[in-house]
UniProtKB/TrEMBL annotation:
Belongs to the IS21/IS1162 putative ATP-binding protein family. Transmembrane segments: none annotated. GO terms for molecular function: ATP binding. This is Transposase. Coiled coil: none annotated. Residues 100-235 form the AAA+ ATPase domain. GO terms for biological process: DNA replication. The keyword Nucleotide-binding applies. Pfam families: IstB_IS21. Keywords: ATP-binding, Nucleotide-binding.
């Protein structure tokens, strides 16, 4: 019983309980002040380690997801977007679709909140323990094309393949050539029935064929994407434009 706190901390670290090691002095002080029983002390110690580990895991998954910005579903003003209901958003938030490897497609013109909603869903997934990857279609095509010679792209692709949810934003802003469409097909095929994919696009699947060039590949991609899918159409006028900041007058709302 002659160990110093320092010794005990070292042994916790040796047992890979780093969080407990650093929190130990404060926990001991609290235990003395509140006269915890031995059992209470142990419970607090374990709860502390588990809570810190989970927080660190969430941080790690957030970093891995690479969201362009963080906006939650709570920040999404449902009254501004009449084409989705609170019930729909709440249902999506429950993540049953992710549990069952369903895909989601969000369609609508620019500024209606597609990216906001998918980031919000991505955050919910991360808090529930899922691995999420976010990237735009432009980034994805670049990564797919450079995987052979850029180790950064190779690492990124590995991250995408290991994710439970892959969010591909702005699917069809760019036309793909045949090679790109082929690479995209292989990725989608690899993720099929293992992970969920969320796609956002300003064009519907009926127009994707033109942009992918090859009808055969388009059919194969759509086949996998649309097999188990929920499509959400957002039609309300652009939130960006409704709430644009203007230099003429005070009624403007900053977005
Ligand atoms: P899209 O991806 O459909 O082009 P975004 O999701 O990027 O549109 O939305 C544009 C901006 O407007 C973002 O800053 C987003 O947070 C905001 N926005 C859009 N719709 C809403 C909404 N219903 N409530 C709150 N903010 C919104
Ligand atoms: Mg967007």
């Amino acid at each position: 019983m002659n160990s110093t706190i320092q010794d005990i901390q070292d042994r916790f670290r040796h047992l890979r309980l780093a969080e407990t090691a650093s929190g130990l002095p404060a926990l001991l002080r609290k235990a003395e002040q509140a006269s915890w029983t031995y059992q209470e002390f142990l419970e607090e110690l374990l709860a502390f380690e588990l809570k810190r580990r989970e927080e660190k895991n969430v941080e790690r998954r957030l970093k891995w997801a690479k969201f362009p910005y963080h906006k939650t579903l709570d920040e999404f003003k449902i009254e501004e977007q009449k084409s989705v209901s609170t019930r729909q958003i709440n249902q999506l938030r429950e993540l049953n679709w992710l549990e069952q490897q369903y895909n989601l497609i969000l369609l609508g013109p620019p500024g209606v909140g597609k990216t906001h909603i998918v980031i919000g869903l991505g955050l919910e997934a991360i808090y529930k323990g899922y691995k999420v990857a976010f990237l735009t279609m432009g980034e994805l095509v670049h990564v797919l094309k450079t995987q052979e010679y850029l180790s950064k792209s190779k690492t990124l692709l590995k991250r995408i393949r290991e994710s439970d949810l892959v969010i591909i934003d702005d699917l069809m802003y760019m036309a793909m050539d045949q090679r790109e469409a082929n690479l995209f097909f292989h990725l989608v095929n690899g993720l099929y029935e293992k992970s969920s994919i969320i796609l956002t696009s300003n064009k519907g699947p009926d127009q994707w064929g033109e942009l992918m060039g090859d009808q055969g590949i388009t059919t194969a991609i759509l086949d996998r994407l649309l097999h188990r899918v929920e499509v959400i159409q957002l039609n309300e006028a652009s939130y960006r434009i409704k709430h644009r900041s203007t230099i003429f007058g005070d009624e403007s709302v900053q977005t």
